[in-house]
């Protein structure tokens, strides 16, 4: 009998998602890029790193579907392999920031007092600085590389998850079933992991989905500014940086990675909005 409410709730969420046009469109876009990333070696027509100076700045053709860039590399193949990098950046960055944000938010919300004040004032200081500016500062300190860009983006988003979870924990910790768990002698860690956190996951899931798109966009922004991926790496933001000066001679070398960034961020935003509606019990 205990499984029935959970099962019913899950079915309601799935039903809402299936009826939600944004969820269908967003999931389809994300699935498309996932498939492209997985089968990149089969889809790409050229080595994305190989430069052919004799073929530089060519337009669309049967050999180069989206033309070539300023060093003669195939734009289509670089877009295909760039999907791997962008998805990796988004997933790794959000996994890291979600993990630390959950830890800080859970501890601050559950224990309260001076610990809550210390943790949340640090989070407030991080939020006081624009995210892209804070990421630029971190990358400048660590040095230019895609790994350091991922670290910077991860750190920037920690306060968001910490504040969201803290707000949820503050509500849940006062409920009767948490009090009952304390009365029977359950440890704080057990209460947090088995009683509190499972009832605080909905807003985190929504924010994490939206956050993947934001992380991809921020990492691309860092690469565009020359603070992210190394020169030559087929990362969409770096491609924009390298080819902006060739926009008149090879417009696809600039517009194609820009469109790819737009689409993948749009996919995660649409899915995140749909999840917000589906997980809201007040919306039928």
Account of the protein in words:
By secondary structure, the protein is mainly α. 73% of the residues lie in helices and 0% in strands. It has twelve helices and no strands. The protein has helices at residues 3-19, 21-38, 40-43, 75-111, 113-127, 131-142, 146-172, 176-183, 188-196, 201-224, 236-243, 252-278. Helix 2 (21-38) crosses helix 4 and helix 6 crosses helix 7 (146-172). The longest helix has 37 residues, at 75-111. It is elongated and about 75 Å long. It starts with a helix and ends in a 6-residue tail after the last helix.
According to DSSP, the number of beta strands is: 0
Tell the overall outline. elongated
Rounded average pLDDT: 84
Q: Strand-and-helix sequence, N→C? A: HHHHHHHHHHHH
* Alpha-carbon distance between the two ends: 24 Å
Report helical residue fraction: over 70%
**How many helical stretches?**
12
């Amino acid at each position: 009998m205990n499984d029935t409410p959970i099962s019913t709730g899950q079915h309601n969420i799935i039903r809402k998602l299936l009826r939600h046009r944004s969820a269908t469109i967003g999931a389809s876009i994300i699935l498309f890029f996932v498939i492209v990333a997985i089968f990149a070696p089969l889809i790409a027509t050229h080595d994305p790193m190989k430069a052919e100076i004799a073929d530089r700045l060519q337009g669309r053709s049967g050999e180069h579907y989206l033309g070539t860039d300023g060093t003669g590399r195939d734009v289509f193949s670089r877009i295909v392999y760039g999907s791997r990098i962008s998805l990796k950046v988004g997933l790794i960055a959000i996994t890291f920031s979600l993990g630390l944000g959950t830890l800080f938010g859970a501890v601050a919300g559950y224990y309260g007092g001076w610990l809550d004040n210390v943790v949340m004032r640090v989070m407030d200081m991080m939020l006081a600085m624009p995210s892209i500016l804070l990421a630029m500062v971190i990358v400048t300190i660590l040095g230019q590389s895609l790994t350091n860009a991922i670290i910077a983006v991860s750190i920037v988003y920690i306060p968001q998850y910490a504040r969201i979870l803290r707000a949820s924990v503050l509500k849940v910790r006062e409920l009767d079933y948490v009090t009952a768990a304390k009365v029977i002698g359950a440890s704080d860690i057990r209460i947090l992991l088995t009683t509190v956190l499972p009832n605080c996951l909905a807003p985190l899931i929504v924010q994490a989905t939206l956050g993947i798109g934001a992380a991809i966009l921020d990492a691309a922004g860092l690469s565009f500014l020359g603070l992210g991926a190394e020169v030559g790496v087929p990362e969409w933001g770096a491609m924009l940086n390298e080819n902006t000066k060739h926009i008149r001679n090879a417009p696809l070398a600039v517009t194609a990675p820009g469109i790819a960034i737009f689409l993948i961020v749009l996919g995660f935003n649409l899915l995140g909005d749909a999840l917000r509606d589906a997980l809201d019990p007040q919306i039928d």
